[in-house]
Specification:
With about 170 residues, this protein is mainly α. Helix content is about 95%, strand content about 0%. The termini are far apart.
Amino acid sequence: MGLLQPELGLIFWTSLAFGVVLFLLCKFGFPVILRSVEERRNFIDSSIEAAHEAEERLERVTLDSAAIVEKAEAERQQILRSASEERDRIVGDARMKASEEAQRIVAEARAQANEEREQIIREGRQQVVALAVTISERLLRGELQQKESQIVLADRLLDEINKASQAKPQNNEA
């Protein structure tokens, strides 16, 4: 017999081996394979479902984070605005206090300068008076050594006093 025409015994034993293998596969192999395919399908389905849930959670988290970022930005703007207002207020207060302090210092310096000027003028007058008294004393000593000179000087002083007292009422009336 040739290769193209198998014998009846070969067909029988091949069919019997095929049937036994088919029976064993149906009894023991296919249930295990089907169970593992089913488990794999369930795993894939649960993974897809978990991915959808994760995607939904991610969207919620994204929206929440966007809201949080927006709220934080608004708070930051408010804080910056209030800090700027506070800074402006503090700078204004400091400028006002500095201006008041400067005015006070200038007023004190002017008062002190006026006081010192007055004191210098007083001291100058005192020195001029002391000098005038000293000069007058020396002049009078020389002039008043004679009795006649003393009488002439007294008359002249009395005349000046009378003229001064008559001139004062006229000045007061004017």
